[in-house]
Amino acid sequence: MELTPAASILIVDDQPDLRLLIRLTFEGQGYDLREAATGEAALAACASRVPDVVLLDVMLPGIDGYEVCQRLKADPHLARARIVLMTAGHQETERIRAREAGAELYLAKPFSPAQLLELVQSQLALRGG
Prior knowledge:
five-stranded parallel beta sheet; alpha/beta; 5 helices; 43% helix; Rossmann fold
């Protein structure tokens, strides 16, 4: 019997504490978790293995989350990744910009671990994973 690979989640945030909180939310749930602290590192991580879901902070050093999202969605090989843009901003213009960049969802900080887990599970279900 062939085992199906674990769904992969790439956590992209420049704040180590937030990456840890997100990691703890998903540990023990059977996911393959990877992390990146910059937009450049996120793009490199996606190029080496396309994640199923990218939890992507908007405010990153160097390339911001909007740009990372646009680059991922512009690449036919990487475009299948479901992207959740995370930001402390709560403006409608930011939601519109996230949609225009190609993100499937926009999540305003702060958010609860339960909310994040449910959101990722729904994104995996939508992509059939």
